[in-house]
Fold this sequence. Notes:
CATH class: Alpha Beta
Helix content: 25-40%
Strand order of the largest sheet: 1-2-3-4-5
CATH architecture: 3-Layer(bba) Sandwich
Radius of gyration: 19 Å
Number of domains: 1
Shape: globular
CATH topology: Chalcone isomerase
Number of helices: 4
Mean pLDDT: 88
Low-confidence stretches: 1-23
Number of strands: 5
Structural class: alpha+beta
Distance between the termini: 71 Å
Amino acid sequence: MRTQLVTLIVALTLGGALAVASEDSATVPYPKGYRDWTHVKAMILEAGHPLYESFGGIHHLYANDKAMQGYRKGTFPDGSVIVFDLLEAVAKDHAVTEGSRKVLGVMHRDHKRWPETGGWGFEGFAAGDAAKPVVGTQAATACFACHAAQKNTGYVFSRRRD
């Protein structure tokens, strides 16, 4: 009886550890310090753009060093991280300024962890809050469905500017 109890405890412990590891393998980490990375580009989506309802506002894109290698060479190595920082666009007195952060989108390259989405993990953090992921297990439909059209550029829409 004692052996069966020990076996059950070990099995439950290992099962829990495997569940956590499986969950962690799907998790895209919050990109701490991303604003110190290379600023790739900025743009504003205004009313009338087909993606305005979802992505209207000021876009800033940042890339870590590995992602910058990808922009230069056309192939993004594992460890590449691209951040899409979406802020409200506030128009006042003939100027457009940044308002509140709407979402912080992250693409994290790891072919082993995310083979079903072109080797990229996707996540969005509501208002840029690391505790508020909004994509989770919906990455294939919420993000990759659009990025799939960019296969020739490593599933990345943005381009490095000189």
